[in-house]
Write a structure and sequence with these properties.
By secondary structure, the chain is mainly β. Helix content is 5%, strand content 28%. A 3-stranded antiparallel β-sheet has the order 4-5-6.
């Protein structure tokens, strides 16, 4: 993906995405004073496939911080993308 003329964007792993969550907060479930803008209280897709059901990918609901599986055929109007840059150590997840 290319954004703002910069390449190398990808979907985060579910562990990366869930690491943003502060369970003490909701709407959005991010730490107080977080530096992000335009965060919606909605499901965000991860790049992590559910090992028990390969038709599903994990998502994080930033309204409440819940992690759940979404069927991969859902379109992006049901889930949003929070793209990240840099390497992902797939062996760690």
């Amino acid at each position: 993906m290319t954004v703002g003329g910069t390449k190398g964007w990808r979907l985060p792993s579910v562990a990366e995405l869930a690491s943003l969550v502060d369970p003490a907060n909701s709407n959005p479930a991010l730490p107080t004073g977080h530096p992000f803008s335009n965060v919606q209280s909605a499901n965000y897709w991860s790049a992590t496939t559910n090992a028990d059901n390969s038709a599903h990918a994990w998502s994080v609901d930033l309204n409440n911080g819940f992690v759940s599986g979404l069927h991969k055929t859902f379109n992006f109007t049901f889930g949003l993308a929070w793209c990240v840059r840099g390497g992902m150590n797939a062996d760690a997840y």
